[in-house]
Amino acid sequence: MGVSRPPSTKEALRRRLEAEIAAYLERGGQVQQIPRGVSGFRPEAAGGRRPLILPRRPATRTDLSALAAAIDRRKWERLKPVLARRRKGSRGRWTIVYDDFGEPIRRVWEKE
């Protein structure tokens, strides 16, 4: 197993990257500036190769907020009678039934 090194900080990574760039430029390397968006959308900028990012036509979107509101309305209409029944007869409480040794067996709803 290899020895694990502590993780580098952002500042250490930045310094290392700057040193690597300086060494590359000292050896005669050159950095070519390409305007933003050119290399990803124009194949001729990439030397005639296929572009890395393919342009797509914007997707058409369908507004579903009216449909979602209709579904919520139908759901509420279906639940309204159930909730009303619960409110009317909700006087009571849950009690726990224990066995002879004091262990809980089940819960029972007791009306007051």
Describe the protein in words.
This protein is α+β, with helices and mostly antiparallel strands and about 110 residues long. The protein has two domains: about 10-45, no CATH class; about 65-110, no CATH class. About 40% of the residues lie in helices and about 15% in strands. The protein is built from three helices and two strands. It has helices at about 10-25, 40, 65-90, and strands at about 90-100, 105-110. A two-stranded antiparallel sheet has the order 1-2.
H and E string? HHHEE
Helix- and strand-based class? alpha+beta
| Total count of helical runs of at least 4 residues | 3
- Which outline best applies? elongated
Spatial order of strands in the largest sheet:
1-2
What's the β-strand tally? 2
Query: Number of domains in the coordinates?
Result: 2
> What is the end-to-end distance?
70 Å
Uncertain segments are none
Helix content: 40-55%
Radius of gyration: 35 Å
Please summarize the sheet with the most strands: 2 strands, antiparallel
% residues in beta strands: 5-15%
Average predicted confidence as pLDDT: 78
Key structural traits:
112 residues, alpha+beta, two-stranded antiparallel ribbon, 40% helix
Summarize the structure.
With 112 residues, this protein is an alpha+beta fold.
In terms of topology, how is this protein built?
Layout: H1 10-26, H2 38-41, H3 65-88, E1 92-98, E2 104-111
Antiparallel strand pairs: 1-2
